[in-house]
Amino acid sequence: MKILVPIKRVVDYNVKVRVKSDQSGVETANVKMSMNPFDEIAVEEAIRLQEAGTAEEIIVVSIGVSQCQETIRTALAMGADRGILVETDQQVQPLAVAKILKHLVEKESPQLVIAGKQAIDDDNNQTGQMLAALLGWSQGTFASRLQLADGRLKLTREVDGGLETVSLSMPSVVTTDLRLNEPRFVKLPNIMKAKKKPLEVIPMDSLGLDTASRVKILKVEDPPHRAAGIKVASVEELIDKLKNEAKVI
Amino acid sequence: MAVLVVAEHDNAVLQEATLNAVTAALEIDSNVSVLVAGKGCAAVRDEAAKISGVSRVLVCEQDKYEHQLAEPLAGLIVSLADDYSHIIAAATSQGKNVLPRVAALLDVAPISDITDVVSADTFVRPIYAGNAIATVQSEDAIKVITIRPTTFEAAPADGGSAQTDVLTAPDDSSDYSRFVGEELTQSDRPELTSARIVVSGGRGMGSSENFQIVEALADKLNAAVGASRAAVDAGYVPNDYQVGQTGKVVAPDLYVAVGISGAIQHLAGMKDSKVIVAINKDEEAPIFQVADYGIVADLFDVVPKLTESL
Ligand SMILES: Cc1cc2nc3c(=O)[nH]c(=O)nc-3n(C[C@H](O)[C@H](O)[C@H](O)COP(=O)(O)OP(=O)(O)OC[C@H]3O[C@@H](n4cnc5c(N)ncnc54)[C@H](O)[C@@H]3O)c2cc1C
Ligand SMILES: Nc1ncnc2c1ncn2[C@@H]1O[C@H](COP(=O)(O)O)[C@@H](O)[C@H]1O
Question: By alpha-carbon position, which residue is closest to atom 6 of ligand 2?
């Protein structure tokens, strides 16, 4: 079985982003970029399936600027076998990402796609579900446990009420939640090895797909500022404030 | 224009978030239908018909809708789409699961987790864990939207008398997903996302036994219990307690953060609370930057005292 893992290059989760003064977006120049954390979990899960003998090949795909090659190399250093960059300088929204991924799935014929549940920049939480729809495949979102058995996929999902277990037809698109696994650290020798792994670069425009944005970003602003309050010295003072000042208890 | 709201329910009761979704829908257009798909869900149908402002309730009962699996449910919603300019659900784990699938089948770009309706095609949504607020305009003929329940008032659950229509399900013999089972967290406490008071514990709690300190305080306040990701990852509490960018978003009147540092991912889920209290022994903890009232102290000292004094 082949597994395809889409990975997005995003502003690192530790960075507190700044909104640009012209309200066109957030500042990404000279900001630390990393692999979307949910995608690291996806790569890790694919590697574990390979280590268990269930998967033969892991292909990672990133759609974006040329620097996404670094993100792909990170995934290759973790243990993925080869990478594909669909290169573009444009912003690509989830519907277009899903169409590009569908195209690659048809070309590469993986049995399983493992994506992140959410890219932590735009917080969309859409792409995996959309890809499953376009392919006419089953979808297993927010996975915290994944087992292949008898030609189906048994998946435990993190839902609002707790956990839900479903059995999915194959092929399938799965999206990862935080508790699925803990991604490994990349070892130095593996970074060297990853440099020799194949990485194909395809210009997005050469695919001939409809990748136009359907959602126009009119402006991006700072959130309302929440001022820090006061420190209270005792439990009595806190209760007094909550009762008589804030009037919430 | 007409708006379709996808109801969320467990065949027995309607989830409160549906009422918030109805309010968002009414901000777009006064012609609002609610879809109740399920099995043996007559009680939910009746509840939905009473929601103030709803014109029509569409009911579709089939085995395949019993567990709200994304594939059949998306097929049903798509079969209704021609009659609607907007399809809306709450940004719950169910809404997030189903609506993007609907959108892709309709070849439209969904808009997730909106916090405000500017006009019929323009919406506000937080990005980057709420550190930036985007105003976006949809260019698609049908808008497929999930709404953040905490930012829209709940529509009154009574006062409406919607017409009810029974739908025939579209042909669909597909076998994508099968429901196997669920482990739902049982609790007599208020529901986390709609509770008036929330008490959350973080890594500082140290163990699941110690988490009882937070639970005791919550019980005294008749509050829901939440947690940081670190507390969930460490196994102190179940996953559905997680508050934050990638967990639940809450906005109660009072949020008490105990032993939580205040990472941006956590703040994303609670900084719209009316009043925030932080209890943390590190006075530099970022949580104090958003707290109205902070106590710099050992939680094992302060929290039991607080519970006792209330
Ligand atoms: C992709 C991604 C998504 C994430 N999503 C979320 C999310 O949705 N929600 C979320 O919460 N986090 C999320 N996180 C994690 C987040 O970055 C932080 O790691 C997490 O919030 C930290 O939890 P914490 O504050 O409990 O732990 P810590 O940061 O370790 O803080 C523990 C605090 O407890 C205090 N403390 C310890 N002992 C005591 C004591 N005895 N008395 C008083 N105070 C004490 C310490 O001073 C410290 O401030 C996410 C991270 C990533 C990468
Ligand atoms: N530009 C991209 N390149 C590769 N994968 C992506 C891209 N955008 C989204 N994805 C995948 O889709 C998941 C969900 O993203 P989103 O729907 O944008 O929140 C991510 O975790 C990735 O696995």
Answer: A8
